[in-house]
Amino acid sequence: MRIVSGILKSRKIDPPTNLPVRPTTDMAKEALFNILNNKYYIDELSVLDLFSGTGNIAYEFFSRESELITCVEQNAKCIKFIRETKEKFEMDNLNIIQSDCFSFLKSTKNKYHIIFADPPYDMPNYEEVVDLVFSNDLLEEDGILIMEHSKKTNLSLHKNFSEKRRYGGVNFSFFK
């Protein structure tokens, strides 16, 4: 796994093999950030990374100098790895929260410009994440929710659905 662009461009991140994760591919990350670069000034954003896993997406936002990044992950081994990586690369504006993402979404009062969620592909309740984000008003004005999912998941019928993009086996659905 490597950081695609920004101040940490080409840095390798080597997570332990025993983490229960499926990091977003470099090709998909590069495509996603090309989309985001055309819509936002990344360095002015507050970002929430749900189901953070290795922290892969959060590191990309840090490398592009986002204002504030918050990672939410439940797994203790993943949290440990994110903390170690934060320290190694001196990511001062990266907040790490060990929590169930659903509980976090129900309790937080913060708003974000971008919320990125990469739940397990076999999670049955993707729509609940989308519903919680919008019912709790967690997006800033002109903010966006991005859900990563497999091709088997169809989120296009949700009332806040905007578009879907596919990059190999990775699918991103966007909600406004």
Describe this structure in words.
This protein is of the alpha/beta class and 176 residues long. It has a single domain (26-175), classed as Vaccinia Virus protein VP39 (Rossmann fold), CATH 3.40.50. Helices cover 30% and strands 26% of the residues. It has five helices and seven strands; from the N terminus they run H-E-H-E-H-E-H-E-H-E-E-E. The protein has helices spanning 26-39, 56-63, 76-88, 101-107, 126-135; strands at 46-50, 68-73, 94-98, 112-117, 139-149, 161-167, 170-175. A seven-stranded mixed β-sheet has the order 3-2-1-4-5-7-6, with helices on both faces. Strand 1 (46-50), helix 2 (56-63) and strand 2 (68-73) form a beta-alpha-beta unit. Helix 4 (101-107) runs parallel beside helix 5. The radius of gyration is 15 Å and the shape is globular.
Which short descriptors sum up this protein?
176 residues, alpha/beta, Rossmann fold, 7-stranded mixed β-sheet, 30% helix
List the helices and strands and how they pair.
Blueprint: H1 26-39, E1 46-50, H2 56-63, E2 68-73, H3 76-88, E3 94-98, H4 101-107, E4 112-117, H5 126-135, E5 139-149, E6 161-167, E7 170-175
Parallel strand pairs: 1-2, 1-4, 2-3, 4-5
Antiparallel strand pairs: 5-7, 6-7
